[in-house]
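REQUEST FORM: STRUCTURE PREDICTION
Request ID: SP-0412
Submitted by: Lab K.M.
Chain count: 1
Length (residues): 429
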Amino acid sequence: MEEVESFDFFDTILTRNFVRPEDLFYFLGLSLYADGIIALKPNDFQKARMEAEKVARKISKFEEVTINEIYDVLKAMTGLDDKIIQEIKKKELEFELLESTPIAENVRKINANSILVSDTYLPKFFLETLLNKSQINTYREIFASSETKFTKASGKMYELIAKKFKIRKHVGDNPHSDFRVPKGLGIMCELYTSSKPTRYEKSIYHEKSIPFEVRALIAGAMRATRLAIYYENNIERRWHEISSNVMAPFLNLYCLWVLERAQKFGLEKLFFLSRDGKILYEISTILKKVFPNFDIELRYLPCSRRSLFIPAISEDYLEPLKWIFENKRINKEYFCKIFEISSGKINSEFLSFNDVLENQKLLNICLETAEKKRRILVKFLKQEGFSKNSKSGVVDVGWRGRLQAAISKVLKIEGIYNDIDGIKGFILV
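STATUS: Completed
RESULT:
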């Protein structure tokens, strides 16, 4: 008899982008409600879908049910007509496909001598579709309880497989159906535990101060991202876990905080300063789509320190000139380039802030350049939405408040600064 290694399917080979599988039903309900397909709120649809599966299992004479049997019960429970039921079922399968992610650590172990075994209501052909999406096509055979009507949990699935193959080892995440049951049948087992949520993922998921949609999506994405890549090297693996479980969720929650505070302040526009603000802008844009109640215009403002500092220089405000020097001497060529000065007018190879301050002719040239660049910057800021009446905020990374101060000064000089509301700054340090 041919020897094979068997692998559980869900949370061993593939996982959903959710901490709990049933969260898929909530977001399915959210989509159905938003599209006007059903009148049930997301929570109510989730409960109905879960109850329908429970009832279907209770009335079935087999160990496993099918998705069609579940939706027959859902139709009877909700009174929805057959056309809508079929549409919902189709959307559920679309969600399953969309939200599936391969578990890299185990995918690499699958070969032509591997079989995949699943206790699932999903049809075998759909499991094949999920595998194809993740480009997993090297395996011997799939055993799905929806078709065999036997489950791993009862042990009968293993007995059915034993008629065709000798299982050398079984790998799965369920302590009962993937470990205790096959072990009791004399099959060597490996309990896979990495798909269980980490303390960070659980912490985010159960944090009640965060809206459910956000914490469910972030925690699910943290877990899926962690599992989607596997590094043999412990240090690389640790860095990957830190990125997926700490850095990414921190940035998401920071952006949510910014949007909430901006809403509280009554801001109309948020400007994310380049380049570090780019990722914050992208995250906030996605969050705004998830939460359309954030009635704030988001703008990415391409700029540099130099493009803001130089226009902010004026005779009564020389601090931006000092910022350019950063308390050190700078190369003459660089200084001449940014202030559009002929290098022949400067004898020293390096300049300090005090050198410019003590040379009135040089200082006047700097002030003239600043005025010229200020006219260009003001035109750009107006075009982007800054005005005397706008309620705006700026978001950046690595904050000392200087970019916000420079923008504010330029707007004040040109008489288009909002003296009542000012410009709110959001910092990430």
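NOTES: The chain has a mean pLDDT of 92.
Reviewed by: T.R.
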